[in-house]
Write a structure and sequence with these properties.
By secondary structure, this protein is mostly beta strands. The chain contains no helices and eleven strands. Helix content is 0%, strand content 65%.
Length: 123
């Protein structure tokens, strides 16, 4: 399980939201990967919850390995959504595997008063 967040952060248009702080991390299934990605390391189903408060209306959307997830987006000054992400393979030390990476993308340049992302493996 992982919970990451940022407070009073500038978010560029059409870019991944920076997630600067880790408030909770348990286990190795989910880990931060850089400042704007989250790595899902084990096969299964993950619940992803996003909520935030922005200075201007914007749209945030979840991307999985660079592909927009149509069911996981929200528009407004307080965007939020909860969705499920499926991971087919484990990330191992084998050079042929890699984690599934998720990002929350933002459409309009704005300041987020806060943005919070929580991810937990549910199955």
């Amino acid at each position: 399980m992982l919970e990451v967040y940022s407070i009073n952060v500038e978010a560029a248009a059409n870019a991944a939201l920076p997630l600067n702080n880790v408030s909770y991390k348990k286990g190795c299934n989910v880990e931060p990967s850089g400042t704007s990605s989250i790595a899902l390391n084990r096969c299964g189903v993950y619940e992803v919850s996003v909520d935030g408060s922005a200075a201007a209306s914007t749209t945030v959307q979840l991307y999985k390995n660079g592909i927009a997830q149509a069911q996981a987006q929200s528009t407004g000054a307080n965007p939020s959504f909860t969705t499920f992400v499926s991971v087919e393979d484990n990330n191992t030390c084998c050079p042929c595997t890699s984690p599934v990476l998720i990002q929350v993308m933002n459409t309009v340049e704005t300041t987020f008063n806060n943005i919070n992302v929580a991810v937990r493996k549910v199955r």
